[in-house]
Amino acid sequence: MCMGGPPALPRQEENEAVLEVRVQLLGGGGAHNINDNADILSEILARLDGRSLAAAAGVCRLWAAVSRRDAVWEELCLRHVGPASGPAAAGHATRTVVAALGGYRRLYRLCLGPALDRLGRAGALAHAQARERLSLSLSLSLFSIDCYERLGGAGGGGAGAGRQQPPSSLLFLCKPVDVS
Amino acid sequence: MGTFPFQWPMDPASSAGIDASFLPSLLPPPAAPAAGSDDSVSYYGAPQMHPASLPDLAAPFPSRDAAADLAMRRAEEEVAGIRLVHLLMSCAGAVEAGDHALASAQLADANASLAALSTASGIGRVAVHFTDALSRRLFFSPTSTPQPPAAATDAAFLYHHFYEACPYLKFAHFTANQAILEAFHGCDAVHVVDFSIMQGLQWPALIQALALRPGGPPFLRITGIGPPSPPGRDDLRDVGLRLADLARSVRVRFSFRGVAANTLDEVQPWMLQVSPGEAVAVNSVLQLHRLLADHHHHAPIDAVLDCVASLNPKILTVVEQEADHNKPGFLDRFTEALFYYSAVFDSLDASGTASPMAEAYLQREICDIVCNDGPARAERHEPLSRWRDRLARAGLTAVPLGPSALRQARMLVGLASGEGHSVEEADGCLTLGWHGRPLFSASAWQASPAVAVDGEEDNPHNSNTSNVSSSGGDSNNSAGSSSNGKSRSSGVVGAAGNMFL
Which Pfam families match (chain A) (predicted)? Predict the structure, then answer.
């Protein structure tokens, strides 16, 4: 199985395989089905935009499992802000770092998604334009700050007087602002 | 429009002394007001605002048009705002002249005017802080009871909120990081000295950027300077642990050292433990101005800059407020601060969500500028031009910030705030401003080439570089993976997160 992302937990693979089989059994014989193979499904879902991909998770359990694959979200993220030469150029090192910081799915949900929304019309925004307003390196920097905050209380002291605040450094992306 | 409440009309009657258009885009403060030498005790050359001289705003008939109502109310507020500002400046003039009685009277008037204004937004929001500060100055002796020093935890708490509410600190961090990243190009052992570590929010992004740099991450050391913690807590160590955690997760060899000091001039070079061969970056975000002093007092700034120069840093990043709040005359300082903080508060206003904590952060600065004098005053902001001279005198040369920094800053500011903020570049320095009024400036410096403190430092450094890049079997490299040195990962992870105080 050629998967771009970090090796899936054995449990997830098993889960998907089981779901695949179930779908095949239930679907009966005959024509090919989008759900026949989780990897093909993954290829297809990887071409969706953020909102659709998030919605895809609600379709059925197989789709939920596949759309949780970080590789799918990686495709999406890199399509928007990855190197102009194409997602492949981002490299293994980036994937490792993003995984350590929380994964592409989280990167999209917390950082890229809101930023693209804010920059307006995420779907319609031409990729070239998006790259001018938001770069992968900037997104990763913001993401790393969020990850850092999640490591524990950014309110000026870890243990002790609990001025613990939930991670909030990325909230500014969600504030409604006229970006025209 | 609604987002820009300071467009007060040019009132021809008030041409004396002050320009009534308090647009934050008006950079220089108004001309110094005429010294009150006449009998009518007016220390400030503003026109007497008699009720009769106010434009007659009451419409002859009650207007049923909601828009007209709103416009009328807005005009009333504008006039009230102008009156309030004139009162505050009058009061400040009286304070400067030592006329306590007049100052109190003006202050009482100002408070009354405030009541008529909305303090939720616009001029009211910032004026209330200046009015409070003036009260504090008048009714508590300014030199004997300075504003109680902020508890470190409170200061950090407010700082964090200020960080989130507006783009200024983010701009500072990201711009400085970009300069540091570029300066560290090709270096394998790097050491960052942070003059004010706070919660360490600046460093995750640098750690991540170093993790991803072509050629792999260097060995990163961070020395964080911060105030001593109250007993029972060790804030510096906590920050160090969290940064180490992050560095470990992205596989950057890392070590942290905390230096507890109340002021920067307590820090001696030996405390920073710079190792030979490592590239040093010194980072100062809003710290240098605290080291300035009045003319007749000794200013620690020179000693600190000497200390910095002696470290022979690859880069010194300096971010400061772009304002002149260190003028000797109280009225000048007050006026300048009123302009400056009006712009900052305006930008907070326009961001949409209220942030009382961010305001409290700014309010502390305002209070310090207005109430404190002499050694007690810490917020001695000076404009970039003055910093350039000072840093040049200390033997440092400017390093232009470069197009990547400008691009990144513009991207960040574009994300963080829709409109109004802008990043400008001038002579290699970046300034972030609101509606044309510069508010914060970022610049980078390095030891002048002529000042070679330790000429040998370069050699071991160079040989260090060539050693590591050529041999795959170096003791530093784990599992002799690839000769491109990309992943100096697994084996050395155990050493990451090394931390000692």
Answer: F-box-like (PF12937)
